[in-house]
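The aim of this short unit is practical: by the end, you should be able to scan a pair of folded records and say something sensible about each. We start with the first protein, listed as its amino acid sequence and then its structure tokens.
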Amino acid sequence: MEEMEEELKCPVCGSLFREPIILPCSHNICLACARNILVQTPDTESPQSSRASGSGVSDYDYLDLDKMSLYSEADSGYGSYGGFASVPTTPCQKSPNGVRVFPPTVPPPPPQHHLLLQPGSFPSIPRNSCITCPQCHRSLNLDDRGLRGFPKNRVLEGVVDRYQQSKAAALRCQLCEKSPKEATVMCEQCDVFYCDPCRLRCHPPRGPLAKHHLVPPAQGRVSRRLSPRKISTCTEHELENHSMYCVQCKIPVCYQCLEEGKHSSHEVKALGAMWKLHKGQLSLALNILSDRAKEAKEFLVQLRNMVQQIQENSVELEACLVAQCDALIDALNRRKAQLLSRVNKEHEHKLKVVRDQISHCTVKLRQTTGLMEYCLEVIKENDPSGFLQISDALIRRVHMTENQWGKATLTPRMTTDFDLTLDSGPLLQTIHQLDFVQMKVPATPILQLEECCTNNNSATLSWKQPPLSTVQVDGYILELDDGNGGQFREVYVGKETMCTVDGLHFNSTYSSRVKAFNKSGVGQYSKTLVMQTAEIAWFTFDPSSAHPDIIFSNDNLTVTCNSYDDRVVLGNTGFSRGVHYWELSVDRYDNHPDPAFGVARADVLKDVMLGKDDKAWAMYVDNNRSWFMHNNSHTNRTDGGISKGTTVGVLLDLAHGTLTFSVNDEQQGPIAFDSMEGLFLP
């Protein structure tokens, strides 16, 4: 009921309708609101302008009404409905429903005049008044009847009354003396609401009261509200009731309208019959709309479930992402520890080398210093003979010691720099490239049935990915069975979404299915599509298989060759099994060259006579005789030739490996009938 409330609100005041009237555009408006948005138009307006309902516009030509309205709404959203040049234009306002409302430029009458109006009465309207529908903005000039020219919407008024009553407080027992309790039942015969104690005391289920019908309070309230149907009166003839329905104007009319008014020449029907007809149409439309509403509710449930699923998947994905990033951080920390260990090892190695060199140099320096001090003391001695005895040895020791302090000895064995530079560039680049990838297999393809078809022994299939699928697809795999309920086999693998399979068996039922694949794997199969090939083969000559000397006509059903050399042309359909028969007619024959008819593989030679290689089986015919030809051998020679009007029939039985020819002349009748056995065509 709450959803219906928006349908029961006036587009001007935003409140529930009070005394609604029907505008010619089929929109509704409160009577008081209609008076408030009236606009006075200039006196110079054309007398041919539109009038209120039933006053000169027989078919509600709204487009003409809009054209004849001299004061229409501007594109800027402001209305210039001022009645005279001296009255300034006024910006439009918005009603609570969001519809633009144009305030009247004519000052409203004094408030006391409103107080004198009775509900349903129509106050006097100034001359040359105009009203604009606040919903569709169509303008309409009022005639002398003013707002009385618009019919009252009694149906809408009744719906509003029932809606207001349904929102009232809970029904109370009518027999409780002090504080009435909430009613539990209502007696339709007594028209009284009872609580359980009062029902047992005042309305016992025995005697005459046992036949009374008790209903729930809500149902009883509805039955109470159902009042006798009001008889609406004609808007043009207020004393006449509506009795007929004008089909052309689509409004109820009275007898006086039919006799005197504009509806006299229109098609009319009985009001009751049209009432039942329109109720049936509305009920049918409501049933369809109800189905749509049911689908919408189910769709909303699906969407709400999707919200829950999205939230759950998001939490799961976030947890997985955090775990993966933590794993990367752990791996980086472990690698960091390994690299630091290498730095420490290099540090210890450098220190050891330098310290060893320091220790070695310290020892040598001490020895050198001792030698130097000893030599200085020897030089101080004044004994020449004693000095000369040891001088040569000392000189050699000094030179040897001096040579030991060469450049290599005084060069550091280790540098202070660490030859270790961390190459973090690739890792940083990898981190920057760290992103999500599709690790799911593709969704199940959808077969496009409107594009799938068969032609002769060819089948064309088309498919697509689901509209909301975002998983990358690398290709598709199309599978067909053998046409006899056997196993499926792959007939196409690729990225295309349409494939035509040729060379199928005629009069066979094939099952087909397709699946998608990517780097993550292969998706599910689509639904199986069953397709029936043609029962009878219809084919023509194939220009792509012919020599350029052959001329095609009659939609490739007729061929002509003006060359004296042998030329071959094939049909556009191949056979692999079954029994097939076709006929060829000779329209013109001048005895050269001699034709040959038969069957052949697709790779048959095109510039030699048919049957001269091992890829064709043919019947050679001239004007006197005919014979079979295969692999350049002649068999089964038969007397009788061909001429203009000769018909050659070819019967191919692949089940038994036979090829039969029949030659029928237009004048001579049958002249040849021969068979070739032992054929084994692929």
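Turning to the second protein, read its sequence before its tokens, just as you did above.
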Amino acid sequence: EPFVADEYIERLAWRTPGGGSRGGEAFDPKRLLEEFVNHIQELQVMDERIQRKVEKLEQQCQKEAKEFAKKVQELQKSNQVAFQHFQELDEHISYVATKVCHLGDQLEGVNTPRQRAVEAQKLMKYFNEFLDGELKSDVFTNSEKIKEAADIIQKLHLIAQELPFDRFSEVKSKIASKYHDLECQLIQEFTSAQRRGEISRMREVAAVLLHFKGYSHCVDVYIKQCQEGAFLRNDVFEDAAILCQRVNKQVGEVFSNPETVLAKLIQNIFEVKLQSYVKDQLEEHRKSDAEQYLKNLYDLYTRTTNLSSKLMEFNLGTDKQTFLSKLIKSIFISYLENYIEVEIGYLKSRSAMILQRYYDSKNHQKRSIGTGGIQDLKERIRQRTNLPLGPSIDTHGETFLSQEVVVNLLQETKQAFERCHRLSDPSDLPKNAFRIFSMLVEFLCTEHIDYALETGLAGIPSSDSKNANLYFLDVVHQANTIFHLFDKQFNDHLMPLISSSPKLSECLQKKKDIIEQMEVKLDMGIDRTLNCMIGQMKHILAAEQKKTDFKPEDENNVLIQYTNACVKVCGYVRKHVEKIRNSMDGKNVDTVLMELGVRFHRLIYEHLQQYSYSCMGGMLAICDVAEYRKCAKDFKIALVLQLFDTLHALCNLLVVAPDNLKQVCSGEQLANLDKNILHSFVQLRVDYRSARLARHFS
């Protein structure tokens, strides 16, 4: 524990008699002082003793340090001597090694010619046997020495090729015959070893055959036997992948050039097995069933490229990507050359069939939409005047738009885009994708949507028709939904194929043109539909509103809150406002509702101008306008509500006391109106001709 002086003194005092109150003893300061003095002396003696011991140890440490330093110096001198001896030994070893190498070179220079002479002597001996026509050497008669025989006959074969034919034709023939026999024996031995699964024997024989002309035949035999029993299932691609995986593990143990052998196996699989399989699958449907042909072509090409991706893991040489691409191209080139023509032809016939089947289900004979100068003239007149040129067609509520048809067309086009992406050459991809998009525009936008818009426009009744059913809003609703689906496919499936090509701007322009063309017809149809709505309201007001509504015979006995005409008009408006909201989205809803609201206000304004109002009739007119204003709130358009607020304020002029007319006219809502408008409302009062009222208003 650490030394604490205060605690040490406390313990000393506590142990000293009379140093505290222990045991009831009285405190004795003299005795305590005496004890402290004695203890201090003891501590001084102890300190002197410890100090002497420390000095002695320091002297001893200095002495040992000097001895250690002296010893280290002696060791350094010994180390330097040893290092000098080592250098001398290293130089001596290098000198001896140089002598040994020189001696080895001299021995090799003497031994190599000797070995060559011995080898030449042996070959001359074997050559003499062929020359005599009788092979006596054990190497040719013993079947177990086929490896040595192969080495000898291969060398003799090379020598024989250098000899003149006229003098050595017979011996050359014999050597060639023996060469061929040994080659066949080696290939047979390799085949047998492969069937037995003896990898080491296969490796030995392959190494011997490497110097023979028939080495390639050995590789062919290996490839052929590898494929025996490998393609037993229906999935030839999976079988090929498993076979290559198995052979890849084995080929390196057998051949000295495994990448070449494996590449040759893969080439054989592609050019024989896969090409035959692809041809069988495609030729069956090539002329009879375009849909199945395209599906099979896409599936087979995809599975072939997937197989190629798996094979990229193996060592096939330097440029395996190009090698595999050429193999795939060799299989499919005849089918890919005219792929897009088949695709476009199928898409055209399939789309036409989908549309025709739909119109047949509706028992509808599609009418032709005229083209040329007269039709263009009609179109320009209709756009400028909004007049319905030609007879109105009763569509019986049919929009001639079908989401099922649209989904089918988009699905066919989606599959065509996927096939186009996979099967088209990268340089032709944007062009081919544009052709497919053009087919979609033709059949979906022109033949289906545009036809439905034309039919819908022709089916809109005139504004003075009674009880007309307005189905064009249903056309708008469905066309809006179809546009969203069309735009989604454009972004999801076409854009990735053309995003980095000049075709992008062409496709965007084509899409913009077709949408603008349809928007013009939609705007025209909506405008005529709004006119028709206003016409229906006019009929309701004309049929239901009576002059006596606003000039009742008994002013004191009016029990209704608003007129029957008002109730029916408001019901009609609410129904169609809701229909407009369901038929459109975004800002289009507000735009159309604002237009309808403005026309609705104009109609009510002009309608109120047709009647004269008694005091009670004016109150009833105010109640009607209040109900119209409540109806206008459903539009949720500030301008429309403001118009009806102003109209409501104008109606107050019908009932206000003559003395208060000027005050009301200068109110917040009427102060900015033209004085003629105010005057026209005041003139509707039955008491207007009284001198008093005319005087106050003037």
